[in-house]
Specification:
Blueprint (H helix, E strand, L loop, with lengths): L3 E5 L2 H8 L6 E5 L5 E2 L21 E2 L5 E2 L2 E2 L4 H12 L3 E4 L5 H14 L5 E3 L7 H9 L6 H28 L10 H17 L4 E10 L3 E8 L2 E2 L21 H10 L5 E13 L7 H12 L3 H13 L15 H15 L35 H4 L5 H16 L5 E13 L5 E13 L33 E13 L8 H11 L7 H10 L3 E4 L2 E4 L1 H13 L6 H16 L4 H10 L6 H4 L8 H4 L1 E5 L2 E6 L2 E6 L2 E4 L11 H9 L5 E5 L6 E7 L2 E6 L11 E3 L11 H7 L4 E5 L5 E7 L2 E6 L2 E4 L5 H4 L2 H9 L15 E5 L6 E7 L2 E5 L4 E3 L11 H14 L13
Parallel strand pairs: 1-2, 1-7, 7-8
Antiparallel strand pairs: 3-6, 4-5, 9-10, 9-15, 10-11, 10-14, 12-13, 12-15, 13-14, 16-17, 18-19, 19-20, 20-21, 22-23, 23-24, 24-25, 26-27, 27-28, 28-29, 30-31, 31-32, 32-33
Helix pairs in contact: 3-5, 5-16, 6-14, 6-15, 8-13, 9-12, 9-14, 9-24
Length: 854
């Protein structure tokens, strides 16, 4: 019987597809890419190690030829695939239908070198019909897609491997630069700069309540001159229009002069209100909406979507398309009719055109799979709560996209009156009455914080009034307002901005966001993305010395160039040559060759004012003025480091605080603040060869109040408690995860740091005799506070203090707080995001040490 080998990327996808194929098929997984450019010098084959380009993994002198090596962890996988292929009569490469999937298929052919027919098998949903159809419509590997992916991979390797070492030399080891990652970081830093430069402006107005029906209207003009609102002020706090600014005294005086004044309707404007449904999801819009509505990070959304796709619930989740197939249009319209009635579905299907710059492969939009969509209720027991919430979002968006417009009427009123001193005033009110909800009966798109709702976007009913009708002023309240700085980016708004600028690919946004968070360039406060001071140094260096590489237009044009390469309209080697070696402007290689002009001290400095400078050092940010230094808390957002806050940090005790002399050694004992917190240490003579004794302060101790006695006790640690009957010492010591006692390889945690000094040998031996408890088996701790109910699973979320610090839990999943998360103020939205992210990662992998060959 003929045997056909099918290779996909993931084990989950392999299991699902195997269920649709017969016994003459064998489905195996490559577990992603089996080979790539070398990650380290150890992976470079011996014959290439002497080549000047070897560290890049790209032969820049000979056509930018890439050096591919099989991942050491994939050699076992390759061996298994070769074994299966040896018994096969045909090879079907069923990797994803995009550039990355096409490249994986090409690499498999290059490594496996099949002697049997090999074909590409492509589909955008994992259903029986789609798999059977794909078997009948196989094709060759698309060399243009492979060429486009390879060009992108080489470009990103050259960028990262040439620019990152500059960051190591001038800022800090371990940093990385990337073609899109660096631009994304620059966007976040630029927004924080705007917030730092922002100066709030105060203005006042009047809020009136009028009858009939007690509707509210706000003062819009005095004597024909418009009253200033927030939009009239610039970021410097200055009025930038001809509007009339009211201060508190003027507003209150005006309110007094309006007592008993008569008002009437000066103008009525009625306009039809029509609102169209949003198109079905593509990758970027799914990430944005899941962030707004479910508080999922982009990475969490993609992990959950990947699982839904691989298990056959949704279509392929990496797509730039908003189109639906004819069968999907029919399914969505039938389901909308069934749920809401025929009156809610238009006569003809809605078809959406893609509006994405640099759109990639023409997949469908992200939708429920199959020709009949399963309802969220039908899949509830088959998927996790987080997957269910995402599926429901995709399902409802797809259904709503095929429903009728919402319709209604928007009314704008102008209420005219005159003060006791003859001033003519006008109040304004607007409202929307929706007469037919249409798609809103099913779904309403979320809204970003930096794009507030317009008055006509929210349903608000006003009384039915005509011009000239009298209205009665029932209450009048002077109100003060203050302008707000530009909102920080969230994951949703950063993705939206990158997409609007034409930078990067929607399919890569999740990994980009993950990179800038993991590298420490950005941290989260709630859902807002806050740049670390380290990011300011990185961006400053790139802007001043590699400006073209982080220019938004230049980066977007590179995407266009890569698309032309994919279309065959641009020659890859010539384009890479211009980028790397230059075409009169100086290429990347020349830019990174001369670093003498880069002043590391200047790059790592930020002027605060009054002689205070913030510097980014090896161990974190610190303030400096006239030789005085003070550490800056890692979690402090840059826009909160005002001159007043800097003065406060510098005024706090810093540097060495001498506590006294150790009576046994005669050496001074000092208290200091270090990178990992306050500690005590002894001061050794300059010619001393041994290392000084040091000890961190207990949590109950303070740098300001620690005494010489406290320090001498701490410096006694670790303390030998006694000798066990077997002759081994029992030692009490403090470690990364708290205090513990140890005998040989056995250790047990202590309940408090004070026990390090008080526990005796019998108590220590009794503790060591108890069974070892795994993490999570310790006695339950009381919640620090209750946060709320998880909308995905319905469980109560609480905040607890654990061995590794504060964490949130729903009783089943635990998620540690991150940098920037304040245990006192962490919100339900942030807790939901952290838990969803932790669940999406799946069970923690156990790490095993490899034994050295004897």
């Amino acid at each position: 019987m003929p045997k056909r080998l099918v290779i996909v990327e993931s084990p989950a996808k392999a299991r699902t597809i195997a269920g649709y194929l017969g016994p003459d098929f064998v489905v195996e997984s490559s577990v992603g890419h089996i080979r790539d450019l070398p990650d380290s010098a150890a992976e470079i084959p011996e014959r290439y190690k002497g080549e000047p380009w070897a560290r890049l993994g790209v032969d820049v002198e000979h056509g930018f030829e890439p050096l591919y090596v099989v991942d050491p962890d994939k050699k076992k996988t390759v061996a298994q695939l070769r074994k299966q292929l040896a018994d096969a009569d045909e090879l079907l490469l069923a990797t994803d239908e995009d550039r990355e999937g096409e490249a994986i298929a090409w690499h498999l052919l290059e490594v496996l070198k099949p002697k049997v027919p090999a074909r590409r098998m492509v589909f955008h949903e994992i259903t029986r019909d789609a798999i059977e159809r794909a078997l009948d419509e196989t094709r060759e590997v698309d060399e243009r897609l492979v060429d486009a992916q390879e060009s992108r991979r080489i470009l990103d390797r050259l960028y990262g491997y040439e620019v990152s070492p500059v960051l190591w030399k001038k800022i800090m080891r371990g940093l990385s630069a990337g073609r899109v990652q660096s631009v994304a970081t620059r966007l976040v830093v630029q927004r924080e700069r705007e917030r730092m430069a922002f100066r709030a402006a105060e203005w006042w107005d009047l809020l009136g309540t009028f009858d009939p029906e007690s509707f509210e209207a706000r003062l819009v003009s005095v004597d024909g001159q418009r009253v200033a609102q927030g939009r009239d002020f610039g970021p410097d706090g200055e009025l930038r229009t001809e509007a009339f600014r009211l201060d508190e005294a003027a507003a209150r005086g005006l309110a007094e002069r309006l007592e008993g004044a008569a008002f009437h309707v000066g103008r009525v404007e009625r306009k039809p209100y029509v609102r169209r449904p949003s198109p079905p999801f593509m990758t970027s819009t799914l990430q944005q909406e899941a962030s707004r509505k479910l508080r999922y990070s982009a990475q969490t959304t993609m992990r959950l979507a990947q699982r839904l796709y691989e298990n056959g619930y949704i279509t392929y989740m990496r797509t730039d398309s908003t189109t639906l197939s004819e069968s999907a249009l029919t399914a969505a319209r039938e389901q909308a009719t069934s749920l809401f009635g025929a009156d809610f579905v238009p006569p003809e299907p809605r078809r959406y055109e893609r509006k994405v710059k640099n759109a990639q492969e023409a997949h469908e939009a992200i939708r429920p799979s199959g020709d009949r969509f399963r309802t969220p209720q039908e899949v509830r027991g088959e998927v996790s709560p987080d997957e269910h919430a995402l599926y429901e979002l995709i399902w409802m968006r797809t259904i709503a996209s095929q429903m009728k417009d919402a319709q209604g009427q928007t009314v704008s009123l102008r209420i005219a009156g005159e003060s006791n001193t003859g001033e003519s005033l006008e109040f304004g009110a607007s409202g929307t009455v929706i007469t037919f909800r249409g798609f809103l009966a099913a779904y309403e798109e979320g809204r970003d914080d930096d794009r507030p709702a317009k008055d006509d976007d929210e349903e608000r009913r006003l009384p039915n009034l005509a011009e000239g009708d009298a209205v009665e002023l029932r209450a009048l309240e002077p109100q003060g307002h203050e302008t707000s700085p530009p909102a920080r980016y969230t994951e949703a708004t950063l993705v939206r901005t990158l997409e609007e600028l034409g930078i990067g690919r929607p399919s890569t946004y999740a990994s980009i966001l993950g990179t800038i968070l993991d590298r420490g360039y950005v941290f989260k406060r709630g859902t807002a993305l806050v740049p670390a001071f380290l990011a300011f140094s990185v961006v400053a260096l790139l802007e001043q010395h590699f400006g073209r590489l982080v220019d938004y237009d230049f980066t977007a044009r590179m995407e266009d160039d890569l698309d032309r390469i994919a279309a065959g309209d641009e020659h890859r080697i010539e384009w890479l040559g211009r980028f790397y070696f230059g075409d009169g402007n100086g290429g990347l290689h020349e830019l990174v060759s001369d670093l003498g002009a880069i002043d590391a001290r200047e790059i790592n400095s930020l002027e605060i004012g009054d002689g205070i400078v913030l510097r980014v050092g090896r161990y974190g940010p610190y303030l400096e003025r006239d030789g005085q230094r003070a550490s800056v808390p890692d979690e402090l957002p840059p826009d909160e480091l005002t001159l007043e806050r800097a003065e406060e940090l510098l005024s706090q005790p810093s540097g060495d605080r001498e506590l006294g002399t150790d009576p046994e050694t005669g050496r001074p004992i000092v208290a200091r603040t270090g990178r990992y917190g306050p500690y005590v240490t002894e001061v050794l003579p300059e010619d001393a060869k041994e290392k000084p004794r040091t000890a961190s302060l207990f949590k109950t101790m303070s740098l300001d109040t620690v005494t010489l006695g406290d320090a001498l006790r701490l410096l006694q640690l670790p303390r030998v408690v006694g000798v066990a009957p077997d002759g081994e010492e029992v030692v009490a010591r403090s470690g990364r995860y708290g205090p513990f006692v140890q005998q040989g390889k056995e250790s047990r945690s202590l309940e408090s740091e004070e026990q390090l000094f008080t526990i005796d040998l019998p108590a220590a031996l009794a503790l060591l005799a108890q069974p070892r408890q795994r993490r999570g088996q310790r006695a339950a701790t009381k919640p620090l506070r209750e946060i709320g109910t998880d909308p995905a699973g319905g469980r109560e979320i609480v905040l607890k203090e654990g061995r590794f610090g504060p964490y949130v839990t729903d009783g089943e999943t635990n998620a540690s707080l991150r940098k920037g998360d304040d245990p006192e103020t962490v919100t339900l939205d942030r807790a939901v995001e952290l838990l969803a992210e932790r669940r999406a990662k799946g069970p923690a992998k156990r790490t095993t040490r490899r034994r050295k060959a004897s």
